[in-house]
């Protein structure tokens, strides 16, 4: 049980604050004592929703048996042992055990590393313990803890609000309703069991949009509403370019395998009339065709990449996103804190209404000081500029800032009057000022010229009220315009350099900001970002999706964009471009971070942004982005090598098998030999994830090209088949060797061609020697080759159906291998000329 209370949330919502406090035996001023918290934590368990399948190592191991391939192999082993084929059964079992333990061990290493990385960036919760507000890990919360919530935070557990100030919460992860819900303290009259009706309960996983609150934890971990439906909520993320490519590749393999295997199976039955042989042989071929190591190669490649970039200050939360990082063609970013320094300076105050400058400053100060939402860099700049005397003002109410109105108001009491002070984007302030139609153009001019000089400008306006209770957005009208406050927000030192290097790497930058286009243009000039086009948020309303897709591609600056509009642009860009990245740090960036193929944020970002992002930059310099992209490209490159290798080698061999079944009166290789061959080949490729990648390859983004893969498959498949046929001819017609010797010969030839061609395929350089493979790859390939070639000469070779070949025959076979490699190199030139140059 995760809660000490036997009441449902619905019942708790109906109770008074003090009742809830008593029930949970906690004092609102001091919180729980540390010892009591520790006791409760032990009793109710950690506040986390574990993925149950992840907990048991045994289950994880068993998970590998779910692979259809392993099942086929198991069936084959069982059938073999029933039919008295003990050796076959033993070898198949050995291969199963070896490959499963290899997968498991490799994956475990990768998983551990990634989990450790993730831990380093989890957001903290604020809990009151022994009268001190402490930052603790969300897992350490227990029922009865008093927690503090503020804008940008994620609610860490189901909690009852006991104090709230203009609290707006986004609980769409639970209710699907993206419109913010207001939460208040105090008992709710007759709440229903619908989550939305419990307006004094905040739920785990929702995010705070504005305001602040104190709440008392009721349920933790699996006992929370989120925990109960966590399985359902584990939404399938949008399919990324890479995942999509993998899927298509999977189908391609499946189709070809099915056709070939069926063909070979039928031919064998018809021609050789032995069902068991035909069955075993077809299975071996299916195994040979399946890129069974692909998942391991990928996860190892990705986790290795993640570790390497972590050392450079880039934490990868979602490692499946690494290849997307590499194939990113477009990087959209917001402006403040990412392109510019996050330390904004207030420069000057310009009064437009005859008000004294110090008074205007005081108004801005009061607004920033009393607003309870997240203090953004603009507010911090106001608060640190001067500290005016505000003792004569008391806060009465607040109409919190949001990214749609782009303004926020506080209401203060002064000299027995209420004064509403509104501060925000000048365009939005003018909309609610008196005489907005006949607006003095002087103000516009001042605003425009300040913006063009690169100043960020906020406007301040006020209105007096006769004291009363409660103010709403509707009161933001008929305001008196007072003046501007302007800020300097210089670009980051390395921004220009980063833009330059990203451009060289083929990544285009677009800026999507809530700020105006004039300031943004100035920044672009400063950092040397060429501006193709400008689009304003107001143009978004009537534009259909397809027109937007074109327009978005041709635009560099998107100015005055609301969070939804930002998100829509990312969707639009995704339609035209393979991989779209988004870099941002605010509450308003969270939806776009989620939508993008790769969401990137910075360490100082709000929790919501961090939660939504795939990648977190822990250092201030943007240059680390470059490293991340390079790693992504390396991962992509090495995965692609494996795929091309697998296709060219395996398919080649399988075409040959198909031909051999038709031409030869006996099986060209025994099922066991095929399995050993395939196993040794796989083993030789295990070092691929850490292989070097050519510097010319990482210069531009790459992405899946299923046509290229298919062409490659046929070209190399046919080429290697031709050489297999040459080997067949030598062995069968020329040297007229025995059946076991024939199989031995083909085993040796095919293993060598498969294993060695990696050195040619792994690089686009001509000739291949120009590119240096990693030492590990050289060693593993040569060792596997050595193992395979010595196998027929070992004492137990006969058991596996091998018979040693005379040396001169081995010499001829080596000649075939060398000729094949030479032709593979030539073929690469041809492919290179026709496809790459286009
Ligand atoms: N604290 C504030 N008080 C009043 N107005 C604000 C405040 N913060 C932002 N605004 C207004 O809202 C607009 C949008 O906010 P903000 O600039 O943070 O959005 P953004 O999309 O995150 O842009 P950026 O790219 O600059 O980060 C700002 O240009 C400004 O006019
Ligand atoms: Mg921002």
Written overview of the protein:
By secondary structure, the protein is α/β, with parallel strands linked by helices. It has four domains: 1-145 and 181-198 and 221-236, no CATH class; 288-301 and 634-834, Calcium-transporting ATPase, transmembrane domain, CATH 1.20.1110.10; 314-342 and 492-618, Rossmann fold (3-Layer(aba) Sandwich); 347-487, Calcium-transporting ATPase, cytoplasmic domain N, CATH 3.40.1110. Helix content is 49%, strand content 15%. It contains 31 helices and 21 strands. The strands form three sheets. The protein has an eight-stranded mixed beta sheet, sandwiched between helices. Strands 1, 2, 3, 4, 5, 6 and 7 form a seven-stranded antiparallel beta sheet that branches. A hairpin with a 2-residue loop joins strand 1 and strand 2. Helix 7 packs parallel to helix 26, helix 27 packs antiparallel against helix 28 (739-756) and helix 27 (706-734) runs antiparallel to helix 31. The longest helix has 40 residues, at 624-663. It starts with 8 loop residues before the first helix and ends with a helix. The relative contact order is 0.09. The model has no long low-confidence stretch (mean pLDDT 84). Magnesium ion is lined by residues 334, 336, 585-586. It catalyses: Mg(2+)(out) + ATP + H2O = Mg(2+)(in) + ADP + phosphate + H(+). Keywords: ATP-binding, Cell inner membrane, Cell membrane, Magnesium, Membrane, Nucleotide-binding, Phosphoprotein, Translocase, Transmembrane, Transmembrane helix. Its EC number is 7.2.2.14.
